[in-house]
Fold this protein.
Amino acid sequence: MTPSSKRAAAALMLLLGAGLLAGCKEQVESKQSGYRGTGMVQLSTAKQTAALAAANQVPEAQPPASQEGKRAKEVYKNVTVLGDLSEEEFNRTMLAINEWVAPEAGCDFCHNTDKMEDDSKYQKVVARRMFQMTQHINEKWKAHVGEVGVTCYTCHRGNGVPAYSWVQNPGPAEAQGMAATGTGKNKASWTAGITALYDDPFTPLLTDPSKIRLQTTSALAPAMSKSIQDTEMTYSLMFHLSQSLGVNCDFCHNSRSFSNWSESNPQRVTAWHGLRMVSEVNKDYISLLAAVFPDNRKGPLGDPAKANCQTCHQGANKPLLGASMLKDYRPALATETTPK
């Protein structure tokens, strides 16, 4: 090898080395989420932060509308939920919902455009109930959503059907007799963070959040009613929370003592309310629509797609990174309306 070739080879090796080092040195940022000295921090890279910001862009609000003039129910037929809005505010809200839920299909997604008051499309019946659900969340569940609130866009993000939901999971076919397990366990599932824990923690625990438990607070407690299976089911749900919010366990818990509320972060209280909120909206709003949804919108066991933590959060510890769209749509989506 000539001297010039050696120099070229050395330069190439230096460039390759620098490239490899650059690839290995993506800076990790830490953000304290708990008490000082406890190591309760969340880790992220600039690349992850940028991807999260890009995925949580908020559409601009529709131009303000007059609150004066006739009410929507005086102008249009069969307006049972948002009828007390002014005509202009009603039309503005409909334009926003169209953009949030069905930007390509337009009004046709829910309405028979030859007869707008017609209820023959199931999407319109579902949408009406979802307006009430949104209003209920914003008025009654401030312990979880605060003044930021939610809108249709929080879950839909331009999709007619939210990208993340769940139905009862019957699991794969199992052996019968003594070999049968039927627990949905021991097969890696995305729901449980690619572990072999239960693949459907939602059906038992989002139906009754009081069953979410890991351990008793004293050894050999006489009233101990929680089994290892209960604990594993709860762990499966906790994996789901962690993935849905893009955080690790100590975002809510002090890992020195997971069960101790006095050592936990305030976020744990917010999550406690959130689990109960999701349970209520699934039971009182979505499941009651089972007879309205067509078969192709139901799961293999006939239940409609329901909400879990990922439906709203989608990888962020605060949906849409904490941006409030509700402030531009009060009172339409902020106050409960009784159908008239």
